[in-house]
Amino acid sequence: MSDKPVVFDRGSAERIGDVVRTVERQSPGVPGRSRQVARTLVAKFVVDSVSNDWLMCRRYYPTDNVQPEELIHVAKPFELRRTPFDGLEVVYVNGQAITYTYVDQRERSATDGVDTETQVMTPDYWANGEITAVSIDTGLLDGTEQIRWEDLNTAGRHWATED
User: Fold this and answer.
1) How far apart are CA 89 and CA 110, in angstroms?
2) Within-domain flag for 126
3) Do the Cβ atoms of 98 and 111 come closer than 8 Å?
4) Whose CA is closest to 153, among 100, 65, 90, 78?
5) pTM for this predicted structure
6) I need a surface site. Which of 64, 68, 117, 133 has the fewest CB within 10 A?
């Protein structure tokens, strides 16, 4: 196998484009939704503020160091959201049941009915901190608008026992 990069001529690129357009036309779509091919887009954002289930962010273009003023909702990773877990008992595959009660967007208590511990999200999000997000169906709405970005959690944020 050669170590040289593969170079496509204009004709090859046009044929690849033809294949993509053919796949798009033949996509059956999802019932009840317009016919679209799922496209994954990954982008950089900077955090402006944090709420229970999402972040308010601005797109970030690191090459040009540009941050447009428009604020965009970016969903937190599912395990870091408050709404799906607050006040509910979660039963893990090993049979352990834990009930989570949230104090705010970054602190909660976890109890198994015998012991209770305080947990914090770490590391916390910070103002103007950079995140990477993917454009997908997050299942979240802001009013009537679907939130289409979700933090990929490249910082490894998680819940940990507070010291």
Assistant:
1) 10
2) yes
3) yes
4) 78
5) 0.73
6) 64
